[in-house]
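Design review, sub-item: ligand-bound model
Attendees: FS, YL, KQ
YL presented the inputs for the manganese (II) ion complex:
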Amino acid sequence: MNHSRPPTVIFVADSHFHLRPDASEERRRDRFCELCALARDADHLVLLGDIFDFWFDYPHFRLRGYEEILHGLDAVRAAGCTLHFVGGNHDVWAAGYLRERYGCDIRPPQSLLAVADRRVLLCHGDGLFKLDWAYGAFRALVRARAGIALAKALHPEFLFALSTWLSGRSRCATRDDSATIERRAAAWLARQPAPEEPGGAWDLMVIGHVHHGFTASDRGRTLAALPGWLDRLGYGLLDADGFRLLDFDRDPPPRFPARA
Ligand SMILES: [Mn+2]
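KQ shared the predicted structure:
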């Protein structure tokens, strides 16, 4: 890593790629691979959850349909960019595979990433603002050990069908109107311990999951929600100029100083 400049970090979440993409998803996939090409020049790429709409690992079978995306990530890794993965409620089960293939830094649901003098709290964001009870139940199921054991007993095609159905439910639940999301986020942020108190040691928190891009600030700290990679192709960038939310279609791509 080049220490002559502050490290650059790209954050992306909620592309919800499917095993069988339709025409509109093909475009989002192509653009995601272009984002991966951009990330080759960054120091860190943080996959903040729900990159894949469905993932399950079987001992002797591999899912078919994500090859293009996985190859895109191969190139990121090969270029020397560190990959981090925070599992979302849809792809928490991808962690083992991503660790194996990319040496990916697998992170617990909430973890700190130290970047130069910034302490960045990473969290997918499911369950954070208590937006919907049905959604909460779904989240508890996919993250529970018993849920994983149960899923392993199911036929892969049945599990895929079940997950696709649940996924539709959870997506409706996450699409609360943006004003509600921002209001709850602001209230949540105001309840967090001050930076000098235990548990308050972060200056920037980045989440996904809500599919609505915004930032909120309180007592010198910023909470940033990524817009997702669905209707808008949104991502977050942290570099020498600070953190900002960018639109991959509308904003000019950032220029990174050459890696040493
Ligand atoms: Mn999610």
